[in-house]
Amino acid sequence: MLPSVLCNLSNIHDHATTTLKQCGGTFLFKGPWFTNLNYLITSDPMNVHHITSKNFDNYIKGSEFYEIFEILGDGIFNTDSHKWKHSRNILHSLFRQNSFESLVVKTIHKKLHSCLVPLLNNTSELGTVVDLQDIFQRISFDNICSIVLGFDPKSLPNKLIEFPEVAFEKAFNLAEDAIFYRHLVPRFLWKLQKWLQIGRGKTYTECEKIVDQFLHQCISSTFQEQSKVKCTKDDDEPTFNMLKALVEESGMEQIDRKFLRDNALTLLVAGRDTISSSLSWFFWLVSTHPVVEAKILEEIRANFITKEEYRLITSRVENLNKLVYLHGAMCEALRLFPPVPFEHKSAVKSDILPSGHRVNANSMVIYSLYSMGRMEQTWGEDCLEFKPERWVSEKGSIIHIPSYKFIAFNAGPRSCLGKNITFIQMKIMAIALLCNFQFEVVEGHNNVCPCVSVVLHMKHGLKVKVTKRGIIN
Ligand code: HEM
């Protein structure tokens, strides 16, 4: 089956979706005999419910996942059993703290008003075409670094100059490509390349070094600063520092640099690409669906009457929940374009899935989050259409869809810890941008399609023309 994958590599997610539809939602992928590329692939929600929740203990990340994502070390993404549980408990209690949520809101507002809005104002004055995806990646990177490391790498400028290249960010992107490559080639081949330091193996090692250096610098400066006695406290200074909170919450007596490095890197990976990818698809869908755009603006207008009120409302998280249609539009974008397009698990013992398919011990199971959002059985005949209405009940509240069907944030005990802050960030950004600007996808740039990687970015970016608008009096 490998040749068919290689021939369809450029549109692998749609190819997998078509095959899954033809096979009733589950099939066994068989690679050549000399490789270990044999996977059971599924998009059946009942199978996914079984894997992620009902028989959770049987489906682990496993050693193969650990090797592929070795750059993440022992961070929460990469571990199982007690190591995973330990990180999950610590992060879960950090994410629940009000001071953490306030830091997220403050960071986004600051970056929006100091950089993104001025930059788009400047862009609209000059009439220049910009890549919105690049902009979202930069702002998400600056935000997540500020939140997790207390350091803003300032990769997004506030006016239209040549965008700075941040070595850490570039290394991050290249490492991501190398990780995807490891999914496609036999294990011995990528291991050999790494050992010989050739091709992607060499790139990967170089990237890892840059990432390590950057993180160690941030960790060192955080804890050096802690020892300085501060006489005055800046009003604007955040009261929450993720690295310090990780140390406090885990009860470690000495700074465990590896624990901090691995978990900080995991949070950077979790919080940058996912948010920038979902913002890009959301803005593309909204800009190309004027009726939806008009409804979102109408909802904002109806809720936020004056500028003062708008500022007040968007800085209070509970007020964001009033925007039900906007929430529906975001869920719809995440359904059609989940930033994490597939997940893989390793079976500890043999098992039978609800669909009747057998899973052998130590074999790999993949579920396609991308395909799951495009199944007629779950979403109806109009499953390929962008319809925020499908999330809104007759009474005007959000319709809850179980996470094993709306899978973008994963399901069960390993579901995403950042779901709440994701919606907060996306809504604050969407309100600020849609109220102040109109985005027109440039003509001839209709070829918006996903790239082939572990995160569902747009292959050719999102080229738009920006014009100003003011919907709030
Ligand atoms: C659109 C935004 C996001 C999406 C679609 C998303 C999706 C996901 C998915 C699919 C997983 C499961 C990954 C796996 O098991 O391999 C996951 C886990 C996780 N996410 Fe998110 N995520 C988003 C944003 C965030 C943010 C902003 C953070 C925090 C900075 C975050 C933190 C985490 C953590 C810590 C886990 C690990 C949970 C565990 O293994 O127990 N996510 N996310």
Automatic annotation (TrEMBL):
Instruction: Spell out the CDD domains in the cross-references.
Output: CYP86A (cd11064)
Q: What does the record list as GO biological process?
A: lipid metabolic process
Q: From what superkingdom does this record's organism come?
A: Eukaryota
Q: Which UniProt keywords apply?
A: Heme, Iron, Metal-binding, Monooxygenase, Oxidoreductase
Supply one GO molecular-function term: monooxygenase activity
InterPro entries (UniProt xref):
Cyt_P450, Cyt_P450_CS, Cyt_P450_E_grp-I, Cyt_P450_sf
Indicate which residues the UniProt annotation says bind heme. Answer: C416
UniProt cofactor(s)? heme
Q: Which Gene3D superfamilies match?
A: Cytochrome P450
- Can the keyword Chaperone be found in this entry's annotation? no
Record-linked Pfam families: p450 (PF00067)
Q: Which family does it belong to?
A: Belongs to the cytochrome P450 family.
Listed PANTHER family: CYTOCHROME P450
Q: What is the name attached to this protein's record? A: Alkane hydroxylase
Source species: Arachis hypogaea (Peanut)
